[in-house]
Amino acid sequence: MNKIETKLPGVYIIEPQVFGDQRGYFMETWSTRNFEQLGLHYDFVQDNQSYSSQQGILRGIHFQNAPYAQAKLVRVTRGAVLDVAVDLRRGSPTYRQWVAVELSAENKRMLMIPRGFGHGFKTLTNDVEFCYKVDNLYSKECDRGIRFNDPAIGVDWGEVKEELLSAKDTASPLLADSDCNFVYGEL
Fold first, then answer.
1. Cβ neighbour number for residue 183 with a 10 Å cutoff
2. End-to-end Cα distance, the chain
3. Is 53 part of a structural domain of the chain?
4. Whole-structure pTM over 0.90, yes or no?
5. I need a labelling partner for 59 at 20 to 30 A (CA). Which of 1, 120, 138, 149 fits?
6. Which stretch of DSSP H or E encloses residue 37?
7. Cβ(60)–Cβ(119) under 8 Å?
8. Long-range contacts at 124-127 (CB < 8 A, ≥ 24 apart)
9. Alpha-carbon distance 173 to 108, whole Å?
10. For residue 111, what are the domain limits?
11. Is 135 inside a domain boundary?
12. Using one digit for the tens of pLDDT, what is the confidence trace for 103-127?
């Protein structure tokens, strides 16, 4: 596996080693040993999967407040997405900054997103299957979102069609109006 730094410390692109021949390919998508050799120490407790039928669907920006904050290892098993991580930790040198990475079934890249960051993605193709591991269980009480087009963050999603957003995402508050409780150095 290869770990590639992004402009946000702690957010990494992970490239698995892929073994292929005329029959197809094999790769490890998670190995405690390999991740620890990369300096990434996570105890994932839940796997999630979503399906998006159309190109242009936007999901996010989502997170769980502490004490149920989650680190995520995300990847695409069918199709392609523009995947976005946003630093939501007050006091962080990169507070409100974001990084976007194309993840696809073809490039097999993954994105490692630590606790304290919001996450979202926009589908670049039809029929997208999106899988992710989290290091904390789902908590309905701590489930939160930030408005995808918050001008204080300024994510460049490209064209977004309101009809392809969920009611939850259209109702999400701006970061300034949210109760996001992430503080740099505390997670």
1. 14
2. 26
3. yes
4. yes
5. 1
6. helix 32-37
7. yes
8. 124/55, 124/79, 124/80, 124/81, 124/82, 125/55, 125/79, 125/80, 126/53, 126/54, 126/55, 126/79, 127/51, 127/52, 127/53, 127/78, 127/79
9. 33
10. 2-177
11. yes
12. 999 999 999 999 999 999 999 999 9
Q: Amino acid identity, residue 175?
A: L
Spatial strand order of the sheet with 12-15 comes to 2-5, 12-15, 110-113, 72-78, 128-134, 46-52
Structure confidence by residue, pLDDT tens digits, 30-72: 999 999 999 999 999 999 999 999 999 999 999 999 999 999 9
CA 179 to chain centre: 20
How distant is the alpha carbon of residue 97 from its chain centre?
A: 14
Q: Is 62 a catalytic residue?
A: yes
Number of domain units in the chain: 1
Clarify whether 119 is annotated catalytic: no
From the centroid of its chain, how far is CA 158?
Answer: 18
39 sits in the region (left: phi over 0; alpha: psi -120 to 50; else beta) called left
CATH number of the domain enclosing 29: 2.60.120.10
Q: Which of 12, 42, 119, 132 is catalytic?
A: 132
The answer to whether residue 182 is domain-embedded is no
List 62, 68, 119, 138, catalytic entry: 62
Place of tokens 């194309």: 102
